[in-house]
Amino acid sequence: xxATADNLRRFVxxxxxxxxxxxxxxxxxxxxxxRANLMGxxxxxxxxxxxxxxxxxxxxxxxxxRAKLVxxxxxxxxxxxxxxxxxxxxxxxxxxxxxxxxxxxxxxxTLANAHHIGRVGAYGELxxxxxxxxxxxxxxxxxxxxxxxFRGTDARFVTNPVxxxxxxxxxxxxxxxxxxxxxVAMGKIRVAKNEGKPAPxxxxxxxxxxxxRDPNVMYSEPHGALLPFGGHxxxxxxxxTELLATALTGGPSIQPGNQRMGxxxxxxxxxxxxxxxxxxxxxLRREIDGFIDYVKASPPADPKLPVLVPGEPERIAxxxxxxxxxxxxxTTWAEILAAADSIxxxxxxx
Length: 350
Ligand code: NAD
What we know:
about 350 residues, seven-stranded mixed sheet
């Protein structure tokens, strides 16, 4: 099934509205999901809707929830997401942190207990769009563990994404590192399973701890596990990400002393920095332009695959998919239609 971004956005908005979201929230969440598809991250696109509706019915996501400010102490802002849809509550927390950073030059902002915040890069883009540098460390809990520790054989944490955004210059768009600390995001395994394709090499182990490319090991008992990216280094980053996102935020880590109800809860630790208050914007731009030009001038090993910088693959995908439409595989589309049926939302014409 191939659809335009506008058609998908309208349909997903109507599903969320049928699920009880008021119109700004439904539109914001729908746009966030469709934008992830446009940027090539189908793992965090409209294919999340069946999960969201399942959580909605189980009371594991609460529509129309506002981010609650639980602490306001100068450059420190703490929020609780109250299991609200992640995009609106994380967006509210980011907006407040960006405004505060204008006064303080640096902000540490925490958000605990949000439902799935989706593509973390969206929050980095809010910061870089305001001329700020941002760092985001996110854990995932309330869910069974899906990622095994380095040297381990079973899952003990989830895909703990990290995002770092740096503003652009007149010549270069903002840089956006936005990645799961697992070899691939869990949603990419879901997409591989739905498309009947093997998982990437080196991404999965089976329930006995042996390497496999079968995505079904993540969906049948006893479960297999994803591996961290980059061996011990990715694992080490995942460990500190879990702790920054929880120990500082008041949100739960995945340790068994915390309740898991079978939903998805994201906790996020964010640092914002105004570069104008450090070495200055002129220096930042000079160094970005000089360094990015230099790095990208490396002769490509394959002439068809030039050197890119973080955020560039997403821009390329966005330009392409805005032109050609978004492909949704048959299994994912059937699941989305079933989710719409289950809350009484009519199927679309397209
Ligand atoms: P990925 O592996 O596709 O990309 C990771 C990063 O690498 C991006 O910043 C991208 O720009 C950069 N990149 C890719 N190819 C590049 C190249 N050739 N040169 C330079 N840079 C390059 O992403 P992923 O790890 O599969 O994560 C996908 C999405 O999943 C992200 O948006 C992430 O925030 C999201 N996520 C969310 C959660 C959650 O719980 N909310 C959990 C995990 C992941």
